[in-house]
Amino acid sequence: MKQQYTILKNQDNSRLIIREFGELDKDSLSLLCEESYDDAAVSSAVAAGREKVIAVLRTKNMYPPRGHAEKIADMVMDFYAANKSEPVELAIDEPAASSKEILTEAFMGIEEDAEIIDDLLEEDFDGDSDDSDEIKIDSSIKIADDDAVDVEDEL
User: Fold this and answer.
1) How do residues 47-72 score in pLDDT, each as one tens digit?
2) Inter-residue contact 37 to 57 (CB < 8 Å)
3) What is the 3-state secondary structure (H, E, C) of the chain?
């Protein structure tokens, strides 16, 4: 799904507004969410760095994935550094953006699993599994030889 984020300030420049659009229909973007932030809070977050900006921008209503949040935070930091008043747009093609993250996570999981398997194969097992003693079962259930059923007779 293609997504687009529009970053702008309201008319009196007291609030930062971020609008999230998504391609629900082919070649048509629909507004998914609009979130506004206090300008002073965002300005202090910009001064503190990218991680603080991400923390301020993520809300209950708008919580983009890490890769998207980093790009949005960079755009907001550039927006404040340039002291822009015109809206700025950020377009993200989600399958292309998230496929690298998914492949990286999958590869890391395989690598960790391989290490665990190697550790298991290297371990020495000290146990009774090498004993050649017969297993003795003391059971109260015994099958009589004359009760055996011939499968062909039953058909």
Assistant:
1) 999 999 999 999 999 988 999 999 99
2) yes
3) CEEEEEEEECCCCCEEEEEEEEEEECCEEEEEEEEEEEHHHHHHHHHHCHHHHHHHHCCCCCCCCHHHHHHHHHHHHHHHHCCCCCCEEEEEEHHHHHHHHHHHHHHHHHHHHHHHHHHHHHCCCCCHHHCCCCCCCCCCCCCCHHHCCCHHHHC
- 80 is written with which tokens? 């404040």
Is the pTM above the cut of 0.70?
Answer: no
- The encoded tokens of residue 98 equal 């998230």
Q: Phi, psi at residue 95, to the nearest 5°?
A: -60, -40
